[in-house]
Specification:
By secondary structure, the chain is mainly alpha-helical. The chain is built from 8 helices and 2 strands, in the order ααββαααααα. It starts with 9 loop residues before the first helix and ends in a 13-residue tail after the last helix.
């Protein structure tokens, strides 16, 4: 789900870069304040950026965009505010190495995927400790699927608002409807992946799961050893 070069006007591209720049600055400030050793997050950030880059690089063209795995829920949960950095680096490498998306639309694409990942981090932080153990699978599924659908909605909104009026409205809505329908199975799949990841890590390595929370808060309200 990348917006390619030339699909939107330069004004929208500029707005995308401005928004992404602001979110990157905020993310870096949050991480810097959350830990005295900023380099401690680098190995986790590099590993999950590589996972995002690899998953997003395998795509199925659905004009005027494409369908591919995103792992936005997992990025938000495991990286907190660092998810925005992973999204920008992953999308930049895809644009430069494979031509997925474009350099002029990199800011917009980063907003489409970065905002849902940041919201996933906030929702996980606020609701996970209140969720009963039996409901955690459903919580993870809703979280993983929901952020994918949010990304699709952001993509559709940007395309609708930015396309020139000369393009036929019927063709425009037909293309966007096809994109939304094509992403429904992907949302279901990402919900399963996110739920499986949450349940697995909560059982075998809970401190790894909650490191993302503690890195993004100066004082985490969650225990780092046993969340139960």
């Amino acid at each position: 789900m990348h917006i390619p070069d030339g699909l939107v006007s330069p004004l929208w591209c500029g707005l995308g870069y401005a928004g992404t720049g602001g979110l990157l600055w905020w993310s870096c400030r949050r991480l810097q304040r959350a830990t005295g050793d900023t380099l401690a997050i680098v190995p986790r950030l590099a590993l999950l950026t590589a996972a995002f880059f690899t998953a997003s690089a395998v795509y199925i063209p659905v004009p005027p965009a494409s369908v591919h795995l995103m792992f936005l829920g997992s990025l938000g949960i495991l990286l907190g505010e660092g998810a925005m950095i992973a999204v920008v680096v992953g999308l930049l490498l895809q644009a430069v190495m494979f031509g997925h998306g474009g350099l002029t639309t990199l800011g917009l694409n980063a907003l489409i995927m970065g905002i849902p990942a940041l919201l996933a981090a906030a929702v996980f932080r606020g609701l996970w400790h209140r969720c009963p153990p039996r409901g955690r699978s459903l919580f993870g599924w809703v979280l993983g699927a929901g952020v994918v659908l949010l990304a699709v909605l952001l993509f559709s909104a940007i395309v609708i608002l930015s396309l020139p009026a000369t393009i036929g409205e019927q063709r425009e809505w037909l293309a966007l409807t096809a994109i939304v329908i094509a992403h429904l199975p992907l949302a279901m799949l990402e919900g399963v992946v996110t739920a499986s990841l949450l349940v697995f890590l909560a059982k075998v390595k809970p401190e790894f799961l909650f490191q993302g929370v503690s890195l993004s808060r100066e004082e985490s309200p969650y225990p780092t050893a046993d969340p139960h």
